[in-house]
C-alpha cells in the first residue's frame, strides 16, 4: 500500500507559471482522472512529477509514502515507482523493445547483480500473453515507425513489465481510434489492482467509458477546481468546460 | 633457444630508458583500458629516427640485405614527403618524430603453449575479458605485446590446411619469395607519408597465406597493445588469399593511457586472388593521446571479395580510409565503418573504392558518433572511370551528434564517369534529443545508460555484422565512453 502526495505544487516552464498550487493524494488501488480543457497544465503536471528537466517546480512538494522525490533525477523517480505513459513516446532506433526493457530491469538491480535472462524472457512473454501482444512485437525497435496504436501498446507493455507504484497516463487516448483505445483500456484494467495507483489525464470523457475512475478532478488554469466521482465526468461531457468556467466566474464575483 | 640469447652480441643500448620510462600504472589500474605492466625491454632502438635507427632494427631482426635497402629507401621518401596538411588536420604537425621510440621488443619468441605464456600477459588477457576457454584455445589469437608476438598457437591448427600464419618478421625470414612477390605492391612505400614511415621502421604485424581453395573456418585473431611511453607501433600486415580461398582476420586494440603523444602507424595489405574472400575486422580503442595513422588497402581480383569492418574508438587523431582496388571483373569491395569521437578526439575516417574492371560493385556504410567536443569526419573516394560498364557503388554515411558542440563533416568524393555505371549516396546527421534521453530515464535508466543505449542502437545494424565477442566488446567500450560524457 503506497501513497502519492502532490502538495500545493507550482510548476513553471521557463518564467511562465503553468501549474499554480495543485494538491492531490492518490492511494494504491485508486484510479483518479484529471480532466480539463487544453492548455490548463495537465501534461505539465505529469512531466513535472516524472522529473523532466525543462519543468521547474517553484514550490510545493511531491511525496511517495511521505518521502519527497523532488531532489531526485528522473531515473531515480522512475525506480522509486513513478511511471509516465507518454502522450508522444520517443522513438529509439536500433534498440529492440525486449532489450530496452531488459536494460530498464537491469537498472533496477543492485550493482554487480545480473538479470537472469531466461527468467526475464519468461516474464516478458507472460505479460505479452496477458496483454494479447504478438511475440514478434518486442523484437521491433522501440516506437520506431509505430502507428499511434502500436506506440500505446508499447507503453502499456512497459508499464506491465516495470510494475510501477503509480502510473501517470498523459493524454493516453489522444489521436487513438476506438480499437487502440480498447488496447489501452484493457491494459490498464488488467493491471488495475491493490498495488497500483493511476492518474489518468484526459481531455475527453470517452476514455472513462472504458476505464472507470474512482475519482474525477477537473483542472482549470493550473488548479483542481472541482472533484467528484465518475458522474462528474458525465456531467462535464453533457455541459462542456464552459460550465466550469461560468461556475468559477460566478464564485469569483 | 630464445632470440634474446641469440642476439646478445648486438649490445642493445643501455636500458636506462626502459627502467626510467614513466609508467604511471605498474600493476593493474582498475580503470578498464587504462592499464599497463612492467615489461623488460630487452631490445630498444632508443628514441628518434635516423639511418642508424633503421640499421639497428634491421640487424636485430637479422634481415636480408634487400629489406634493409627497402627500409632505407623508404626513410628517404618519408623525409622528403610533406605532411598532408593541405587537406588533413594541422594537428599532424604536433607529432615530434624525434621523440618517438621506433623499436622495442620483449626479446621473446612467440609462445606456443599456454604454460609458457608469462603471468603478466595472462593477466592482461583476463583484463581484456577473453573467456577462459578461448584464452586456452585462443581461437586464433596472436597477441602482440609491443613489437613482437607474445603468444601464438593457432598457427599449428591452420598449418594442417597449409595456411601460413606468422608475424611479419618470421614471414620475411621463412617465406621470402612469397612475401617479396606481394609485399608493398598494394600500398607502395610512397603512397603517403605514413606508409613511407611504416616501410622504414615496420615491425610486428602478421603475414598470412591461404592456399588455393582453402577455407579457414575460424577467424584468425591478433590483439595489439601499446605498452610503453613514446613508443610507436608500426606493424605491417600482409594477407594473401590464393584462388578460391577464404579467410577472416580480426584485430583488436586496447591501449593504456600515457601522458605524452604516441604514434601508431600501420600498413595492411590484402590480396584476394581469383574468387577469394577476405574479411578484415578491426575494433580499436586507443588512448586519447595516440595518433593513429593507418593505411589499409586490398586488391580484389576476378570474382574476389574484400570486406573491411572497421571500428575506431579513442585516439587523439585517427586517419584511416580502408580501400579496395577492384581489379578483376565482378570483384566486390565493402567497407563497414563505425567511429566514435569523444572530447579532444578527431576521427577522420572513410573508405576508398577504386573500380578498375567491368561489373565490379562496392558498398560503403559509415556511421560516426561525436560526443562532447569530439569531431568526426567522413572522407570517401569512389572512382569509376568512363571506359567501364556495369559498375555499381552504394555509399551511406550517417552521423550522430550527442551534444550541441559536437562536430561532424562529410567529404564524399564520388567520381562516376560514363553512363553504364551507377552510384547511390545517402547521408544523414541526427542528434540524440533531450526528449529521447528523458524517455529512457523515465524508464529507470541513468543518463549515461540512456546515452549508451541510444548510441548502441544507432550502430546496431552494423554491430550485428561483427562476430559475437567483438560486438559485446564494442558495446562495453561504448558504455565506458558514454559514462564520462554526461554530468
Query: Using only CA atoms, what is the Rg of chain B?
Result: 22 Å
- Please report which band the strand proportion of chain A falls in: under 5%, 5-15%, 15-25%, 25-35%, 35-45% or over 45%: 25-35%
Say what the CATH topology of chain A is: Rossmann fold
- CATH-wise, what's the superfamily of chain A? P-loop containing nucleotide triphosphate hydrolases
Overall structural class of chain A, as computed from helix and strand content, comes to alpha/beta
Helix content of chain B: 10-25%
Total helices of chain A: the number is 9
Percent of sequence in beta strands of chain B = 25-35%
Distance between the termini of chain A: 42 Å
Low-confidence stretches of chain B: 1-37, 106-112, 133-152, 224-232, 255-260
What is the total number of structural domains of chain A? 1
Report Rg of chain A.
18 Å
- The span between the termini of chain B is 55 Å
**Multimeric state:** heterodimer
Report the strand count of chain A.
12
Strand order in space, largest sheet of chain A: 6-9-10-3-11-12
Order of helices and strands of chain A: EEEHEEHEEHHEHEHEHEEHH
Largest interface: A-B, 30 and 24 residues
Low-pLDDT stretches of chain A are: none
What would a concise description of this structure say?
The complex is a heterodimer of chains A (253) and B (487). By secondary structure, chain A is of the alpha/beta class.
Description:
The complex is a heterodimer of chains A (253) and B (487). Chain A is an alpha/beta fold and 253 residues long. Chain A has helices at residues 42-50, 74-79, 97-107, 117-130, 148-162, 178-191, 206-210, 230-239, 241-252, and strands at 3-13, 16-27, 31-35, 55-64, 67-68, 82-85, 92-96, 141-142, 166-170, 197-202, 215-220, 223-228. Chain A has a single domain (3-94, 165-252), classed as P-loop containing nucleotide triphosphate hydrolases (Rossmann fold, 3-Layer(aba) Sandwich). Chain A is built from 9 helices and 12 strands. Chain A is globular. Chain B has helices at 3-6, 16-20, 51-60, 65-80, 119-127, 132-137, 154-159, 168-174, 176-182, 193-201, 434-442, 447-463, 468-483, and strands at 43-44, 104-105, 141-145, 148-152, 164-167, 206-210, 220-225, 236-241, 246-254, 262-264, 267-272, 277-286, 290-300, 305-314, 317-320, 323-326, 332-341, 346-355, 361-370, 375-384, 392-401, 407-416, 422-431. Residues 1-37, 106-112, 133-152, 224-232 and 255-260 of chain B have low confidence and may be disordered. Chain B has 487 residues and is α/β, with parallel strands linked by helices. In chain B, helix 3 runs antiparallel to helix 4, helix 11 (434-442) packs across helix 12 (447-463) and helix 12 (447-463) runs antiparallel to helix 13. Chain B is globular. The interface between A and B is medium-sized, with 30 and 24 residues.
